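Key idea: predict the complex, not the pieces.
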Amino acid sequence: MNTDQVTELQRLHDISTGLHWVNDGEDLLFCCINNIDPKDLCLYDTESKKIPVDRLNDVLTLYTIAAAASVEDLPILAKQRICYEACEPWLSTVMSNDELEKFMVEHRLNDGFTPGVTDIEAALDRVHTLYPTVTYEMLDGKQNESSNDKILQVALGDLKLNAANVQQVYLALQDLFSKLDKGLEIDQSALEIMPAGFYGLRLACQNYLRRNEVKWLDHGDLSIRQQVVFTS
Amino acid sequence: MSQATIKSVNDAIKTVRYDERLAAIKGLVAIFAQDPQMLSQRAYVKLRPALRFLSCDSNEDGVGSRFMDFERAEASRLFMKLEMIYRAKKALRAVEAEELETGPVVLPKKLSAKEAEALAAKEAEQKRIAENSARLQKIAQGMGLKIPVGQKEKETTP
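Result:
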């Protein structure tokens, strides 16, 4: 990556979730595509902040950049804010729903998840068979580190126990949660219908990543509400 | 240029009495002022020296009309007017020639200060948009991304 790209991604991070974050989605889009300092937002009136329709390609390019950037350069929350809060509402006024949906499927947020690394449902089955009743006390604390590792190794099967693979298991859990949560009502939670073994495996992943000082990755399809529910 | 006009020019410049000559030329210049296209090259080269002569002071250089100051001043004014008519005719000819080649010439409308400011702001805005588009595209290309090309489905301004 050259300096321009690094600078731009840092700027996008800063104005979406960083120190100079912009609260409003429309303002965020205005700042992103026009290279405007959020401090200068007060100089523009509502009319001049509107993005004209002929800038469709710029908005699509911004969406593509934010979606494709690696999670190290642009955290998932920043990507979600830029893509879902800033770009998507504007694009929905310009593009047809089918076109927009197709574009969003083609440009899925890069959250570091690689589908197919682990078969998460089989992993949950294995964990549940061997450890049917896992509680918080059984996995918490330094004395239970080996228990966490055992559960994770059972889930990983033949794969090596390391941070990268545990991240993938954790992301696969979130992916499953997101799929199950999709058709539910607002007062329902996928937690209630997640397969048995979910609680133990999730806790084991979190403990392992925390212990190894690795930042948890969040799944791109999970909203902030879903992330809160998932980690609760 | 009609023969009649050439004859009038000849008659005017050959009038014996200087004050009558000046009056005749004055009438012709008034006609030419209304329609500069009527002033032909032949008429111009005849009238020009005639007016020059009438505007000179004979006491100084030996030639001239022996007119009073105010009459010479009148002749000078007519001389200047003839020059202006001739230039106007040449300019009209140039515009016509240009129109034949490139179509009607539309002279730019003079803008008021407010309009000029708005135009400058619009141009600056367009320049800024172009720069930002280029910046985004450069970054996308640098990341190895294909630049998406969207098609507007809805015509409503968001």
